[in-house]
Amino acid sequence: MSGAPDVTTRPVPQQGAVRHGRDTGADGTAPTATTYDDNTWTADPYADALRTGRGPLFLRRADGWLLLLEVERWCADPDAADLEVLRRCEGSVLDVGCGPGRLVVELGARGCPVLGIDVSEAAVSRTIGLGGQALQRSVFEPLPAEGRWGTVLLIDGNIGIGGDPAALLARTAQLLALGGLLIAETVNDPSVDERVDVHVTDARGATGSSFPWARLGTPALLRHAHRTGWHATAQWTTNGRSFVALRSRGGGMEGNTGH
């Protein structure tokens, strides 16, 4: 990949129903259209937690199961697991679901061309306020420099975006340059492979509306990756967090150029 992509911002589209695909094949054929509503991540419990940098905040399933969201970690400086991810990044980096921007800001400080995207206005505002570049946009909407990113990050559970890992992997392949790198964080439990409807909720019981989400352990991600034209180049665990590095088949870049 030659040079940094143009990440000049455009007018932010209205948030709402976002069309994306399912059952995308490795041949890149167009998937069947479906929709999900990403306004849930702009709801007050999530936005308030990012503004204050404090939880508790949860994803809540219909059966009452709760997943604690690590707001304080997201709003802190990158930890050892984050720094290992950043060391493996190549070329320009697109951080999908960048949240409050810790990875965007750290990569920018290292001189790496980087852009964060998030559907949450509070997340984008915090990232920009810390000196990072970010856009309020869904990964399934048009994005700057499509097909020219060196690395795409799906960290902090963001492989779950849209509740359809195959569709998200197919979309990521469209964003990357030939031979580009996807680094995804997985659930640190190899048995997990679920698609669920969840709400964002806080300790007071305030909730947003329901939206689809996915949770994948590493074996499940590798199965989806194999079916959608990716191959794994690395797997690792740091500080109890698990990660996979993937390239689309036919990509010729091997090794990594850390920042």
Automatic annotation (TrEMBL):
<keyword id="KW-0808">Transferase</keyword>
<dbReference type="Pfam" id="PF13489">
    <property type="entry name" value="Methyltransf_23"/>
</dbReference>
<dbReference type="GO" id="GO:0032259">
    <property type="term" value="P:methylation"/>
</dbReference>
<keyword id="KW-0489">Methyltransferase</keyword>
<feature type="compositionally biased region" description="Low complexity">
    <location>
        <begin position="26"/>
        <end position="38"/>
    </location>
</feature>
<dbReference type="InterPro" id="IPR029063">
    <property type="entry name" value="SAM-dependent_MTases_sf"/>
</dbReference>
<dbReference type="GO" id="GO:0008168">
    <property type="term" value="F:methyltransferase activity"/>
</dbReference>
<feature type="region of interest" description="Disordered">
    <location>
        <begin position="1"/>
        <end position="38"/>
    </location>
</feature>
<protein>
    <submittedName>
        <fullName>Methyltransferase domain-containing protein</fullName>
    </submittedName>
</protein>
